Amino acid sequence: MASLHVRNVDDEIVALLKERATRHGRSAEAEHREILQDVLKGRQAMSFDEMAALLRQRLAGRPHTPSEILQREGRDER
User: What is the residue extent of each domain of the chain?
Assistant: First the structure.
């Protein structure tokens, strides 16, 4: 496999890459490879429904506060 070195990348872009990598549980280098594959091999971004299903899967088994309680607490704080 070849190596790719990218120079003169804006600091903000590097920070965003690192944040995205952290969200996906990967290194910045692995995230960079994934982004290149997604773009160059024509993968489609996940739909809202796919992202919601993935989030539900990742949060399965964790305790959740019902939204009506959170809304009531938010109103009470005002």
Answer: 1-61
Q: How many whole angstroms separate alpha carbon 28 and alpha carbon 22?
A: 8
Nearest-angstrom CA–CA distance, 44 and 20: 17
Q: Kindly report, residue by residue over 31-72, the tens digit of the pLDDT.
A: 999 999 888 887 677 789 998 999 999 999 999 899 999 999
pLDDT at 75: 93
Q: What does the DSSP 8-state code read for residue 45? A: P
Q: Whole-model pTM above 0.70?
A: no
- Span 1-61 CATH architecture: Orthogonal Bundle (1.10)
Composition of the chain by helix, strand, coil, percent to 5: 65, 0, 35
Asked if residues 18 and 28 have their Cβ atoms less than 8 Å apart, the reply is: yes
